[in-house]
């Protein structure tokens, strides 16, 4: 019998492919290696300690991520960011999610989010803060009665002089209390007859102090089964006042009056969701990898019938299938991220990769739990964390069913009423 110490561990390291993919560069490889070291040495121990207590991402960890430039990966270099693309953003996020999903998720609340205001000087200041991790936000799209059906958002914004007055109920807003701002999708008018239901939706920027809620806003944390590291909030807006100029959409930058911005509200939320979906795919790959890597260790440690269980062919084949599925999803998310960076409109592909990678992560983490036997169903092993967190990925940023709807709607015409 071979002891676990003598058994090979090289499976834990990625094998260099025989032919490098076209998007491989030495800079990207260096960035990935740095992120992997950081995730392994600094994020994983914190996650292992804090996740079981439903703890939050510590300030010291956020400060280190800021130091490494991770909050500004996609912020242009002239505004203080790394000036890189969605590709690198997703690559780093995969590494972070391998350690703790929320550490990758917090990156999605910076990267220039909440900076597309009309005033150029203000925009520049916010971009610089975003790149430094000093402008980290929260996104309030969903409502109790508007989840998959975002066009059904009913939170109201009414103009009163130079301010919007916002009233309504948002649900599932991650990081709301700890944020510097909340980007809120609101309805400023009802659609005209014949207009799409999404007309009249606009994104507003609610600036706030970290660690509290402004006057009129009440937050209640939702007790989740996973995705610890930051809190997810139920938010009630009761006459919350937001300056009129705080319309945040791509179009706001070029339209002083904000009219184009208003028209772009729903489209901007959709655009945001495209990148978010590829980012979720990358996080899902990170979670699946975590489950696989933990399994490879466990299969060598655990012995039954006088053998490490990793000697049993059924379990070896499971490892092979898990690894193959992860590689497939990784190649796919990198391809879609690359397309986004090229400026290609790829809504369908963003949905496809979100669907495939997140369903893969659920399968792989579930398989990993099976490979761990009874020990997998305890809080003593990390595989349960990967499984809990992966389970969420098929739900947020559009459920798997909604991704299938988006994909099929772009392939197969149907009557508008179904
Ligand atoms: C932990 C967590 C964090 C989140 N963070 C945020 C956040 O920070 N900001 C934010 O705005 N939102 C956030 N969300 C909300 C998330 O995006 C929604 O939960 C998701 O879009 C699904 O909406 P819902 O929960 O209302 O489900 P529903 O829309 O009620 O769906 C219920 C079921 O019906 C199915 N379904 C609905 N419509 C259709 C259809 N037309 N065809 C087929 N099936 C359909 C769905 O797929 C699902 O299976 C978060 C959610 C969770 C759980």
Automatic annotation (TrEMBL):
<dbReference type="InterPro" id="IPR013786">
    <property type="entry name" value="AcylCoA_DH/ox_N"/>
</dbReference>
<feature type="domain" description="Acyl-CoA dehydrogenase/oxidase N-terminal">
    <location>
        <begin position="25"/>
        <end position="134"/>
    </location>
</feature>
<protein>
    <submittedName>
        <fullName>Acyl-CoA dehydrogenase</fullName>
    </submittedName>
</protein>
<dbReference type="InterPro" id="IPR037069">
    <property type="entry name" value="AcylCoA_DH/ox_N_sf"/>
</dbReference>
<dbReference type="Pfam" id="PF00441">
    <property type="entry name" value="Acyl-CoA_dh_1"/>
</dbReference>
<dbReference type="Pfam" id="PF02771">
    <property type="entry name" value="Acyl-CoA_dh_N"/>
</dbReference>
<dbReference type="InterPro" id="IPR009100">
    <property type="entry name" value="AcylCoA_DH/oxidase_NM_dom_sf"/>
</dbReference>
<keyword id="KW-0285">Flavoprotein</keyword>
<dbReference type="InterPro" id="IPR036250">
    <property type="entry name" value="AcylCo_DH-like_C"/>
</dbReference>
<dbReference type="InterPro" id="IPR006089">
    <property type="entry name" value="Acyl-CoA_DH_CS"/>
</dbReference>
<dbReference type="InterPro" id="IPR046373">
    <property type="entry name" value="Acyl-CoA_Oxase/DH_mid-dom_sf"/>
</dbReference>
<dbReference type="GO" id="GO:0003995">
    <property type="term" value="F:acyl-CoA dehydrogenase activity"/>
</dbReference>
<feature type="domain" description="Acyl-CoA dehydrogenase/oxidase C-terminal">
    <location>
        <begin position="264"/>
        <end position="412"/>
    </location>
</feature>
<dbReference type="InterPro" id="IPR009075">
    <property type="entry name" value="AcylCo_DH/oxidase_C"/>
</dbReference>
<dbReference type="InterPro" id="IPR006091">
    <property type="entry name" value="Acyl-CoA_Oxase/DH_mid-dom"/>
</dbReference>
<dbReference type="Pfam" id="PF02770">
    <property type="entry name" value="Acyl-CoA_dh_M"/>
</dbReference>
<keyword id="KW-0560">Oxidoreductase</keyword>
<comment type="similarity">
    <text>Belongs to the acyl-CoA dehydrogenase family.</text>
</comment>
<feature type="domain" description="Acyl-CoA oxidase/dehydrogenase middle">
    <location>
        <begin position="138"/>
        <end position="240"/>
    </location>
</feature>
<dbReference type="GO" id="GO:0050660">
    <property type="term" value="F:flavin adenine dinucleotide binding"/>
</dbReference>
<keyword id="KW-0274">FAD</keyword>
<feature type="region of interest" description="Disordered">
    <location>
        <begin position="1"/>
        <end position="21"/>
    </location>
</feature>
């Amino acid at each position: 019998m071979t002891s676990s110490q003598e058994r090979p561990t090289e499976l834990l390291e990625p094998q260099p492919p025989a032919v490098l993919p076209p998007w491989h560069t030495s800079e990207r490889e260096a960035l990935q290696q740095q992120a992997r070291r950081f995730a392994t040495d600094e994020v994983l121990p914190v996650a292992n300690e804090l996740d079981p207590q439903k703890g939050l991402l510590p300030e010291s960890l956020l400060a280190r991520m800021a130091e490494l430039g991770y909050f500004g990966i996609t912020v242009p270099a002239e505004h203080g960011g790394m000036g890189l693309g969605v590709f690198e953003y997703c690559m780093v996020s995969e590494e972070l999610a391998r350690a703790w999903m929320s550490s990758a998720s917090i990156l999605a609340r910076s990267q220039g989010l909440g900076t597309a205001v009309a005033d150029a000087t203000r925009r520049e200041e916010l971009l610089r803060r975003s790149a430094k991790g000093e402008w980290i936000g929260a996104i309030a799209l969903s409502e109790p009665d508007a989840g998959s059906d975002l066009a059904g958002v009913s939170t109201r914004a009414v103009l009163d002089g130079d301010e919007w007055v916002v009233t309504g109920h948002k649900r599932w807003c991650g990081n709301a209390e700890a944020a510097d701002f909340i980007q809120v999708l609101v309805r400023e008018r009802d659609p005209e007859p014949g207009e799409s239901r999404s007309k009249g939706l606009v994104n507003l920027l609610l600036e706030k102090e970290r660690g509290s809620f402004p006057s009129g806003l009440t937050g209640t944390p939702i007790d989740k089964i996973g995705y610890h590291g930051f809190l997810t909030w139920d938010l009630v807006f009761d006459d919350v006042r937001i300056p009129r100029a705080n319309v945040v959409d791509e179009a706001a930058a070029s339209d002083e009056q904000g009219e184009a911005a208003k028209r772009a509200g729903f489209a901007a939320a959709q655009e945001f969701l495209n990148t978010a979906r590829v980012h979720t795919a990358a996080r899902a790959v990170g979670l699946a990898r975590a489950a696989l890597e933990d399994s490879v260790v466990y299969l060598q440690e655990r012995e039954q019938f006088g053998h490490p269980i990793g000697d049993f062919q059924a379990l070896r084949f499971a490892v092979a299938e898990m690894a193959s599925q992860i590689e497939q999803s990784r190649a796919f998310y990198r391809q879609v991220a690359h397309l986004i960076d090229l400026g290609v409109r790829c809504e369908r592909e963003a949905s496809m990769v979100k669907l495939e990678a997140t369903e893969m992560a659920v399968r792989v983490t579930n398989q990993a739990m099976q490979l761990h036997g009874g020990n997998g169903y305890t809080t003593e092993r990390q595989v349960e964390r990967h499984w809990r967190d992966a389970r969420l990925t098929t739900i947020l940023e559009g459920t798997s069913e909604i991704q299938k709807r988006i994909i099929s709607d772009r392939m197969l015409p149907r009557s508008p009423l179904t």
